[in-house]
């Protein structure tokens, strides 16, 4: 069994989805790859993968973006788990969360999927919901807008600065989770901003 960590950014494939709220998990994984100077390459598990170390001498990170649509993310995640020999407790799923305010980051292990079909499919494919999650808040849609439409909309230009901060904060949360554990990461990232 490997001591590596698999960090998966959930989202939808294709350029039309790249900057949408539903793809914020993939933006976080892109940020983690950029910090390590690594590019993504195709993997037989139907995903794009970049590998690097958390820090020199630290644990290996396998950064992944499934090539499938969000609702069927489980297959590629299970394929990568099998290929790299990584247990579910070291599979970090990074995803958007409607019930968290925009730009807030929350971490947890296990629990329900909260109506998130990508998380639901990963739990089904892994045979357990007990994996760490880094949830990036996108907030609820205004008025009566359908949440399904909201998550597939691009972030507005006016939110670019906040989005960049949220993505950086979530990438920090992933690194802290791997390095120091869930509780330490929660204590930093669940605290109110100064």
UniProtKB/TrEMBL annotation:
Pfam families: Pept_tRNA_hydro. It comes from the Bacteria. Belongs to the PTH family. Hydrolyzes ribosome-free peptidyl-tRNAs (with 1 or more amino acids incorporated), which drop off the ribosome during protein synthesis, or as a result of ribosome stalling. It is found in: Cytoplasm. One of its GO terms (molecular function) is peptidyl-tRNA hydrolase activity. This is Peptidyl-tRNA hydrolase. Monomer. Gene3D superfamilies: Peptidyl-tRNA hydrolase. The active site is at 22 (proton acceptor). InterPro entries: Pept_tRNA_hydro, Pept_tRNA_hydro_CS, Pept_tRNA_hydro_sf. The gene is pth. The record marks 96 as: Stabilizes the basic form of H active site to accept a proton. HAMAP family: Pept_tRNA_hydro_bact. Keywords: Cytoplasm, Hydrolase, RNA-binding, tRNA-binding. TRNA binds at residues 17, 69, 71, 117. The record marks 12 as: Discriminates between blocked and unblocked aminoacyl-tRNA.
């Amino acid at each position: 069994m490997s001591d590596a960590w698999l960090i998966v950014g959930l989202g939808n494939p294709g350029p039309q989805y790249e900057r949408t709220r539903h793809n914020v998990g993939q933006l976080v994984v892109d940020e983690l790859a950029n910090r390590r100077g690594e590019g993504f390459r195709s993997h037989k598990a139907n995903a794009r993968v970049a590998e690097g170390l958390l820090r020199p001498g630290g644990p290996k990170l396998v950064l992944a973006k499934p090539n499938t649509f969000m609702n069927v993310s489980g297959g590629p995640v299970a394929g990568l788990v099998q290929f790299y020999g990584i247990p579910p407790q070291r599979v970090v799923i990074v995803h958007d969360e409607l019930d968290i305010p925009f730009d807030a980051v929350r971490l947890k292990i296990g629990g329900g999927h909260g109506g998130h079909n990508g998380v639901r499919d990963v739990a089904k494919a892994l045979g357990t919901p007990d994996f760490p999650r880094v949830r990036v808040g996108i907030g609820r849609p205004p008025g009566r807008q359908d949440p399904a439409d909201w998550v597939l909309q691009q972030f507005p230009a006016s939110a670019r600065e906040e989005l960049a901060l949220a993505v950086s904060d979530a990438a920090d949360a992933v690194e802290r989770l791997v390095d120091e554990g869930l509780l330490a990461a929660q204590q930093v990232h669940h605290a109110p901003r100064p």
